[in-house]
Amino acid sequence: MLLGEKLSHVLTWVSLVKALPSSSGQHREPSCRFACHYSQKQVLQNPNAFVNDLLYWEGKFHQNNISYNSNNGISYDGTNIDWVTGEATAKHPFSAASKESLQIMLYTHAINGSPGAARFLSPSNTAAAPEIAASIMQTKLQTYLKFNETYPGFGGFLPWITADSQDLTPTLDWVNRVPALDNGELLWAVYGFIQALENTGDKSYLELAQKWQVWMDYTKTTAAKIFYHGNGHVCAVIDIKDQTLAVNHPDQSYLCEGDGLLNDPFEGEIFTFWLQFFGGLSDADKKALWEVKRPQLVSVDYQMGKFGPITVQKGYWFSSHETWKVMEMPYYDVDIVRRLFKNAERVRTCNSVATKVPGMFASINNITDPSTGDVTGYISNAGIPSISNQTVQELDVITPYSVFPTILIDKAVGLAWWRNMVVAKKMQNIYGSTESTRVDGTGVSALLTWDSKVTTVNAVLGGVTDFVRQKMKADDIYTEFVDIIEAEYSRVFTHLKGENVELCLPTETVPDTGLVDFTTCN
């Protein structure tokens, strides 16, 4: 980070601190429907007041039996809310390593003394936030260790899990199966969390860091054994012969599920880096990792109306979700990557203007059927078809969390888009933002999830790349990371078109079709 950028970051948070409550316990509660009290212009001119309110209400999600289980420290995927009142109804009793990563990234900022994380976790007593985070992480670690003891075949990694009892169990569809992608997100989140603990110098936090380091170091000994199958091939999902047998048991075996490889240049890439740095692979195998991935890193120019050409990395769907990796690892330290990903946000924002959409797209839960209270499915294929591998997409539902990569590039513009979606009917509730809304305003997903809420919060807090970078340098792997990324991206991207294009601001609104705000938040 350049000196000017560091100064800007500090000043931003100084401004936010002035707006935050003190640790004395006194605080103001902003309106539950606070987004409606800000104009787009006000958000752009002074995003910090808006952030202050956003963090307060998104923090209402962080409750026992809403977003996590206080008995074992484990995240829940989320919870449904009542179509009329907006009060929590049935929680999702399952979770995954990806949800865990979001929770741990949030706690990393709390341990570091972030006023924003404190506003989220403990607005009435901000000084308590670090200990809240540390206590939950202590409990979580014990839960992880018990899971490892009960199901040693997972080698320290997590399948999708049932989290509503004290001890974790794989969900029925993940018995003897484990994914690589989600676990990559979890590992680097823990990696950054350990660094934040070490930075405090506090004895009890240093002890907690050492315990998490032991857990994390174990995954270094099992990662290649489980997921790497030679010739640069990393399995996306592994079938385990017997999850109750140890990794090195003579009767244990691991097979790729079908032909699925984790060879994407998107969020799955950070698991590749775990193998690169800690998998104990030979130099030949490390080289093969990137050779196998190379064909998927593709340059494409976006063109829509007056917008373009703008050079971007071709997406799978070009869902915002695909940008997750830049929240965790310091990709933006490489100039060509930061410029390229800023181009992606030029395209993401301007595509919605060009297509007259009042928000942006990311993989998300579909709308709720009011007659049953059930969510009507999950939409993976949501992005920008013209610059994607997968061109058949469902583009009728938008979600607030689609802004998180925009926030990482330009906080004010990203928040303007977030506001533009949550001012729609039923898009705020007593736990913060609502999952998603139809573009035409005829329905919303009456649901709360980590993915749709805390991705945004973590982006507002800046991601965990500063902590990860610091630890990578201490582990003497940072330069290698930069060299690999620079070499791979420079191979494909030699000249970027469209860098003069400004990020676009919303010009459309979600229509009011008669939906009524939740009665507890109107």
List the helices and strands and how they pair.
Blueprint: H1 3-19, H2 40-45, H3 47-58, E1 68-69, E2 74-75, E3 78-81, E4 88-92, E5 94-95, H4 97-111, H5 115-121, H6 129-150, E6 161-162, E7 169-170, E8 177-179, H7 181-200, H8 203-227, E9 237-240, E10 254-256, H9 269-278, H10 283-293, E11 299-304, E12 307-313, H11 325-328, H12 335-354, E13 364-365, E14 368-369, E15 374-375, E16 378-379, E17 397-398, H13 404-409, H14 411-422, E18 428-429, E19 432-433, E20 436-438, E21 444-445, E22 447-449, H15 450-460, H16 465-474, H17 478-492
Antiparallel strand pairs: 1-2, 3-4, 3-22, 5-6, 6-7, 8-9, 9-10, 11-12, 13-16, 14-15, 17-20, 18-19, 20-21
Helix pairs in contact: 1-3, 3-5, 3-15, 4-5, 4-6, 4-7, 4-15, 5-6, 6-8, 7-8, 7-9, 7-16
Account of the 3D structure:
The protein is α+β, with helices and mostly antiparallel strands. The chain has one domain (3-492): Glycosyltransferase (Alpha/alpha barrel), CATH 1.50.10.140. It contains 17 helices and 22 strands. It has helices at 3-19, 40-45, 47-58, 97-111, 115-121, 129-150, 181-200, 203-227, 269-278, 283-293, 325-328, 335-354, 404-409, 411-422, 450-460, 465-474, 478-492, and strands spanning 68-69, 74-75, 78-81, 88-92, 94-95, 161-162, 169-170, 177-179, 237-240, 254-256, 299-304, 307-313, 364-365, 368-369, 374-375, 378-379, 397-398, 428-429, 432-433, 436-438, 444-445, 447-449. The protein starts with a helix and ends in a 30-residue tail after the last helix. The model is unreliable at 1-26 (pLDDT under 50).
